[in-house]
Write a structure and sequence with these properties.
This protein has about 120 residues and is an all-beta fold. It contains no helices and eight strands. Strands 3, 4, 5, 7 and 8 form a five-stranded antiparallel sheet that branches. Strands 1-2-6 form a three-stranded antiparallel sheet, with no helix packed on it. Strand 7 and strand 8 form a beta hairpin. The radius of gyration is 16 Å and the shape is elongated.
Length: about 120
Amino acid sequence: MAAYEFTVTVKTQYLEEQSDPARSHYVFAYAITIVNSGGVAAQLISRHWVITDGNNHVEEVRGLGVVGHQPFLQPGEQFEYTSGTAMKTPQGTMHGEYFCVAEDGEQFDVRIPEFVLSLPRTLH
């Protein structure tokens, strides 16, 4: 087990009631669970997202913390939050990283694996 390690899992959802396909406006929510899977307590300081829509238009988002928090996680603790994004296409991807600082001062990045934002498939 690495001393400095967070594990990130993502669940996505298309928000039909907030979307307007006629205006190329598609809204997605994503629920993130961050687990301190390492051996040292650490704090999530900032985030960096790369959002790519179906037209390969890329938007980068950087900021402090997540949803107004900079969670400090002991080994084994987790933090969950939900956020969202809007795109001009019905499908796209997101990936990024969190910048973290351990209680011993060590700095490390946590990779957020790429995930797909997509309308649910409908059967006719």
